[in-house]
Amino acid sequence: MAHPADVLAELHTLRAENATLRARLASSSPKAATAPSPAHPPPVGVPFTQKTRLSNEEISRFSRQLLVPEIGVQGQLKLRNASVLVVGAGGLGAPAVMYLAAAGIGRIGIIDYDVVEASNLQRQIIHDESRVGMLKSESAKQTVSKLSSLCECTAYNILIDSSNAMDVIKKWDYVVDATDNVATRYLLNDCCIFRNKPLISGSALRMDGQLTVYNLEGGPCYRCIFPKPPPPETVTNCSDGGVLGVVPGIIGCLQALEVVKIVTGIGASLSQKLLIFDATTMSFRTIRLRGRTPSCAVCGPHPTITKPIDYVQFCGAGPDDKAHNINILPPESRISCHKYAALRLDAFPHVLLDVRDKIQYDICSLHHSLNIPLSELPKRIPELTAAATFGEHHEPNLPVFVVCRRGNDSQLAVKMLEETHGFTHVKDIVGGLEAWARGRDPTFPIY
Amino acid sequence: MAKNFQVLYFASARDATLAREETLSIPDDCHTLPVPQLIRNLTARHPGLQAVFKSAILAINNQYVDHAGRELDGGRMVEVKPGDEVAVIPPVSGG
Ligand SMILES: [Zn+2]
């Protein structure tokens, strides 16, 4: 039996030899080392060649789909030769992109300009913890390349808007609307009409999902059904209203399924139909929609919109689902979280009014705060008056500081208390609890 | 005999009404309820629906009708009948 030290020495020698041989091999035959395998996607810029036969690798990989009578070899080739643009690598786009890549769609484009955040991971399953901070489009592309070397994937790290949408959409056969805001939905609709691309449109919020297909074989467009955008105050986004992760997951999967069906020509699509998913009752309802509206501003016979417009102006809201900061109060009606923190340390007598909804208040709150949601404030003024009235007084005599999540609702509350309810010592805490957590108390949660 | 119909509220229509569904009745002196009158009645009942109806669509028995009550491509006019199911469907835009 060899001595352990001898074995180690021999191992060392063998490793060195191995490395030398590998280096020699690589330098003597550079072509063998660098030539792409047949399955490798062509470099960007090289035209995508249509295939008329499946490779053995493709036959093995897609065998379970080839065996489905509705798909078969011809269907799989159609998927292989199709290109799909997915706009948004979020809750809808994540499963949609993954299923499209897995199903064998030949080329997938992914548009997103956002960065992966921890709060995305509850639903955006194409990203993971190691990708936090990475561009979503890049993270999604990495997942696709791990999933399938047969899929040629293009990541667009852009904010799609009127200046670039026409150029981008031109290059793709189908467009999947997996966006999170009204302005981009109208933009995609209009550009899909101008470029004559079917638009597979999904949306989700809280426990609700919607799915439909626009502009397919003469079917209606988004504007035929919803000619006017919803008033911004009626639009809730996922970052304010919340969303149960699997709900956009289901809609995103159904979007991928609709693409596969449309590409391969299976069955009936959701063109001229609207699928409504209600997760609370687990019900799927299909509404039969109207066909094209003859007076439609974009797809009708006499369109009034013939090129992309200003969608932010049209919708009264920006192309994202972020909250935007308002600034409606004079400086004397506002206080920074640092100054407010100093007052708390001094035990300065005051009332802290938290105007967030109870569901948010339950997540976290500052001690000794009074929670009256903004929507309930007008009818609960007596509670605030009682809390702010100290000693022998009959009128509120304590100052009231108002806080919310990000410092917008608190400004509205201060304005309302001053103008409508006669409060004179009211201040908004600038930036709300997020500013408090970032600037004052790193142990305070941010949601 | 009660001339009832169901109204289902989706998405932001639920926030405006704080209801998922309601049973309402067609007034005694009518057999059916025209769609514009339905919208007026619902808005009077839930003022928050006024903003929602700026973009929400209506369906009667899972069939789209426009706010004037026309079904499909400007064709047949429909009115709400006893036993009908009306859905108020605002567009959802999140994702
Ligand atoms: Zn149209």
Q: Can you describe what's shown?
A:
The complex is a heterodimer of chains A (447) and B (95). Helix content of chain A is 37%, strand content 14%. Chain A is α/β, with parallel strands linked by helices. In chain A, helix 6 (93-103) packs parallel to helix 7 and helix 6 (93-103) packs parallel to helix 12. The model of chain A is unreliable at 27-43 (pLDDT under 50). Chain B is α+β, with helices and mostly antiparallel strands and 95 residues long. Chain B starts with a strand and ends in a 6-residue tail after the last strand. The A-B interface holds A 88, 90-93, 178-182, 185, 202-205, 208-210, 225-226, 228-231, 233-238, 241, 243, 248, 251, 274, 276, 278, 280, 285-294, 321 and B 10-12, 15-16, 20, 51-52, 54-57, 59, 62-64, 66, 71-74, 87, 89-95. Zinc ion binds next to helix 10 of chain A. Chain A: This is Molybdenum cofactor synthesis protein 3. Chain A: The active site is at 238 (glycyl thioester intermediate), 404 (cysteine persulfide intermediate). Chain A: Pathway: tRNA modification; 5-methoxycarbonylmethyl-2-thiouridine-tRNA biosynthesis.
List the SSEs and their pairings.
The complex is a heterodimer of chains A (447) and B (95).
Chain A: H1 4-28, H2 30-34, H3 56-61, H4 63-66, H5 72-80, E1 83-87, H6 93-103, E2 107-111, H7 136-147, E3 152-156, H8 165-170, E4 174-177, H9 182-194, E5 199-205, E6 208-214, H10 222-225, H11 238-241, H12 246-264, E7 273-278, E8 283-288, H13 311-315, E9 334-335, H14 337-345, E10 351-354, H15 358-361, E11 369-371, H16 381-388, E12 400-403, H17 409-419, E13 426-429, H18 432-440
Helix pairs in contact in A: 6-7, 6-12
Chain B: E1 4-9, H1 12-17, E2 21-25, E3 33-34, H2 35-45, H3 49-52, E4 57-60, E5 63-65, E6 79-80, E7 85-89
Parallel strand pairs in B: 1-7
Antiparallel strand pairs in B: 1-2, 3-6, 4-5, 4-7
Bound molecules: zinc ion (ZN).
Subunit structure (chain B): Heterotetramer; composed of 2 small (MOCS2A) and 2 large (MOCS2B) subunits.
Main location (chain B): cytoplasm
Family (chain B): Belongs to the MoaD family. MOCS2A subfamily.
